[in-house]
Amino acid sequence: MSFISTRGKCGSSNFRNAIFQGLAPDGGLYIEETVSDLKDVYSRFTKDTSFVDIAADMTHALLKEEISKDDAKAICSSAFPFNPELNPIDEQISILELYHGPSCAFKDYGASFLAQAMEYFLGERDSRAIILTATSGDTGSAVAQAFHNVKNIDVVILYPKGRVSPLQEKQLTTLGGNVHALEVEGSFDDCQRMVKEAFMDTMLQKELTLTSANSINLGRLLPQSFYYVWARAQSAENPGDLLEGNKVPRVFCVPSGNFGNLTAGILSWKWGMHVDGFIAATNINDVVPEYLSSGIFTPRPSRHTCSNAMDVGNPSNFERLEYLFRNFPGGMGSMIHGDVITDEETTAAIAHVFHQKNQYLDPHTAVGYLASKRYLASRDQRAQIITLATAHPGKFGEIVEAATRTSPPLPVRLEAVLKKDKISTVINNSLGSLSAFLMEHFA
Question: What is the number of structural domains in the chain?
Answer without folding.
Answer: 1
